[in-house]
Design goal:
Blueprint lengths: L5 H10 L4 E3 L5 E3 L2 E6 L5 E6 L13 H10 L15 E6 L2 E5 L7 H5 L9 H6 L14 E7 L3 E6 L20 E5 L4 H10 L4 E3 L14 E6 L4 E7 L1 E3 L5 E3 L6 H10 L2 H7 L5 E3 L24 H10 L3 E2 L5 E3 L2 E2 L1 E7 L2 H15 L4 E7 L1 H7 L7 E7 L5 H7 L8 H4 L1 H9 L6 H17 L4 E6 L1 E6 L2 E2 L2 E2 L5 E2 L4 E2 L3
Parallel strand pairs: 19-20, 19-21
Antiparallel strand pairs: 1-2, 3-4, 4-6, 5-6, 7-8, 8-9, 10-23, 11-23, 12-21, 12-22, 13-14, 15-22, 16-17, 17-18, 24-27, 25-26
Helix pairs in contact: 6-8, 11-13, 13-14
Amino acid sequence: HRYYTTMASRVIGEVCETVIQLNTDLELEPILLNSIEVSEDGLLYTMNVREGIKFHNGDDLDAEAIAFSHERANNDKAAYPGQFYGATWEVVDPLTVNMIMPEANSGVMLILAFRGCGIVPPAAVAEMNDDMSQHPIGSGPFMFKEWLPGDRITITAYDGYQNFHSQAENKARPYLDEIVFRVIPEEQTQLASFETGEVQLLVMPSQQVVNYEGNDDYYLLRNEQSTTTVYLAPVIMEQADGSYDWIPPFNEQAVRQAVGWAINVQEIIDGVLGGLAIRNRSSLPTGNPGYSAKFQEMGFDYDPEKAKQLLDEAGWTVGSGGVRQKNGEKLSIILWCEAGTTRERICQLVQNHLQQVGFEVQFQGIESATFVAERGTGACHIVYATYNWNDPDIVWWLGNDTSLVQGHYGKINPEFADTGALGWTVTDLAARGDYYYQASKMMVDDGGIIPLWNPVNVDGVRSELKDMKFAAQGFRFYTDAYFEES
């Protein structure tokens, strides 16, 4: 509850399970609960705890442990304080706990499934003076063994594990005795360790995937349930009168839309990313609950002639050197991205595509800290960026998270903000998806955000390690995996 890093996210869910979890169909299912019941007004969540589950130290997993863990994951010392939207908890009896909401917000269901909100034993936390970072204890399939900072984390199979995931074929103790998560910074060392068998599973560098395809010594797992959206966004700034608007020339809707029609997204996916991305015209990633094929019925395809037509109709005429102008002003913009080889290659192609329809584009790859600090100050007109969140309300946050350059869109278009907020008033994921479809379409069709794709991550697995698979949203599912006996 206190720390949540990339390495931690891969390990913590194996040690500490959550009360509910997404399955591979992106539906929520009870794990540590028999059921969770939501009142009609959305203010009361009654959790009925499975009887007989034990923590790794032998303590009972009960209603008190759930209330304690959720309160701990929500307090001021947590990695994400207040993430339960003002909820409080009440232990009714040893196997029943109520979560009481101050107002309806169905986004809390995905918080309950968030790996940073796993259930821990209260007595053990007290013994460790509220710091479980050195030896976490949970009820998951693996027990913590060792952490060598900067080198490795080791976990071992829990003999008393009960597996309630619908994806699992093995409903008991994992077949693997031990998993060692290694930190190997250098790519060539990673690949050498993988090929010698020292490492059996590797998060595959994207440019290396093709080298292992069709090789019987390995198999590749592709995660197509990404929760990350990659996009372009024109910069919104506060005006002198306190209102919000885009920096010219993006204060014209036609100019924003022309960017969307001008970019050959599939060319970038194929040429730079090696095909390891899913084209997505919407702002809801393919791996988020509520996503469906209809989300592709919005936004932009590659149609440079349409981009030119929009600019023509808006009065931007082609001038010297093919650069458009209007009222003596050139159609000149500055494009920023965070510095990095792949990102810069992508933005160079974006620059080229926009120049072909009459933009003058200055592209700059900016050091990360400077990019974050100055991207919304007027130093650039448009940014290439990514955003990650696993709930469908990512659509709302993309237009209301004011740390983002487009994060004041909800102030420009209150209907967008209001429609997206309705997604918190219903618990059914399909119904939530309907509201976020409407909100996403508003922002995308307006050119407030130009979605590009969702990345596809690939794991390489040595052939002797059988039945490795992905769980929902690209997390790994280890409990069915085993080594083939030679």
